[in-house]
């Protein structure tokens, strides 16, 4: 019993912890990834189990990591604890995290690093320790058991000492990042124990330490990136006591500071590193006018560097900078040169002519203008150049640019985009080898035969072009983005086109035939920015709109049918047609066609009075009257309107027996409609009105306006209820029929 009770207590405690974790971090309930970042936590929440593989506790207020906090997280792969206030960690806090691959403890308050913390992290690949408050890494290596470590970030503004043995146990690193901006002491050989580092980044202000570190890592680092350094005027060789063979291939300076003296000395020292192929300077400053020690540079021999990249170099008085005369011998083997965003306005012709091996030249975002370009690309300059980027300068006349570049015998790739040419001549002379031309964003209003026919790739995007019809038989790629085209360019002038971009134009569509006319086409990019598209609803959703129109038309027809049925529209249309036919007949039938003395129009509710009293009184009189009654005398099978028309036309008079039943009867309304048209339009006295009972003229439908008028102006016979007056009524009626 006590065993069952113990199990119950353990399970209850476990469930209680899980519930607490769920309340603290709701995302932990449904996923293996547990995100508890920026939740104001002061401690690692309980209930973290083996189910969780990623735990994000960044941006909280955690100060201490206890032994039991992560004890159950045996399957954890990533633990993010950056940007807390962690100042202490129990030595066995990470002991159960054998599968951990990423540990981020950056930007906390750790005053020291203990090797015991990382002792069981056999799978760790990425360790971030930068931004804490430790001043050194201890007397030995905190990383000796991290055999799988790939990237290591360490250092902070207080980090000042690196000792021998601090990196023991680390053999291979993809990236080593050290914030050593205030590093004051470096023991020689401290980094030599690392056999291979693909990319090392170090913030370093102490220029003396720079040389010592370089000597230790020449054999291991492939790419060294040094930030914030003010280069020293070093006399001692950078390769002295260095382990060979060298591995370093690329050296980058960021936010560094140079003087004429230090740059001259650096050029000399770097020549000793035979494997160094690429130099890069980004956001650096040069104090000086180019007064370099040319003699010392020439004496030191040839440079092995093949690629130089300079981006955003600030020279305070760049317009006073010397022309670097005497450097000609140092540039003969250079293959790639980029000087961008650095206020370059020209290259002297004698210097340009010595770039004998240069294949790639990038001068984008500088101050080049046409007249200076004439000297920069002078005759016999840049003899091997294949790619030239002159974008984002101040070039104007396109014809001059074409003439200058025609001096480059091997040029096949030219980028002169984002210059303001404004106009384009009809004919230009370009290098015969030119295959790629970028004229995007150059304000040209059209394309002409100035475009060379040798091109395989042409970019004329963002020029407000309205059409494109150039004959370019070799063209394979054409970029027409952000223009004003309303149709695809013709396929015939570009028979070998493989890729076409017409994004953000005014194309509403194109036919299958237009697309298939490009026989070699493999890629067509006709995307449009949704916010810029101005298409009608029909163009966007043609099938949907057609369906909606059909539905609306169907509903409208149903509505018209319903309205017509309710208000007897069909009847009125047929009656109007009959009336029009009747209007074309003679207004009075010939005497020989008169068959009746009167046609009687009455309500079915009044049939007893009509048929039993009036008919007997009139048809049995001496002489008798012949009456036309619809029940008795209408021709069977004949349309009712035709019967009415014929009966009225064959009757001398028309006798209306009016009553409340009459004006409320739909049948009588139809009968009145036609007789109203026929009789009252003739303005004769053929109508006799008999009122069986008093009736107000307003009770008569408003559409029978003439009938209402007659009742107000003409005498009518009124049936008297008293028997003694009824004989007089009959006599008056007979008199009216005889008139």
Q: What are the defining features of this structure?
A:
Leucine-rich repeat, LRR (right-handed beta-alpha superhelix), 18 helices, 739 residues, single chain, Rossmann fold, 17% strand, alpha/beta, 21-stranded parallel sheet
Show the helix and strand layout.
Layout: H1 2-24, E1 33-35, E2 54-56, E3 64-65, E4 78-80, E5 88-89, E6 102-104, E7 126-128, E8 151-155, E9 161-162, E10 172-180, E11 185-186, E12 196-204, H2 207-217, E13 221-227, E14 250-254, E15 257-259, H3 260-270, E16 278-282, E17 285-287, H4 294-299, E18 307-311, E19 314-315, E20 336-340, H5 349-352, E21 360-362, H6 370-376, E22 387-389, H7 398-405, E23 413-415, E24 436-438, E25 457-459, E26 477-479, E27 499-501, H8 512-516, E28 523-525, H9 537-540, H10 542-566, H11 569-583, E29 596-601, H12 607-619, E30 627-628, H13 630-633, H14 640-649, E31 651-658, H15 660-664, H16 666-680, E32 687-691, H17 705-713, E33 717-718, H18 723-738
Parallel strand pairs: 1-2, 2-4, 3-5, 4-6, 6-7, 7-8, 8-10, 9-11, 10-12, 12-13, 13-14, 14-16, 15-17, 16-18, 17-19, 18-20, 20-21, 21-22, 22-23, 23-24, 24-25, 25-26, 26-27, 27-28, 29-30, 29-31, 31-32, 32-33
Signal peptide: 1-20
Keywords: Disulfide bond, Glycoprotein, Immunity, Inflammatory response, Innate immunity, Leucine-rich repeat, Membrane, NAD, Receptor, Repeat, Signal, Transmembrane, Transmembrane helix
Subcellular location: Membrane
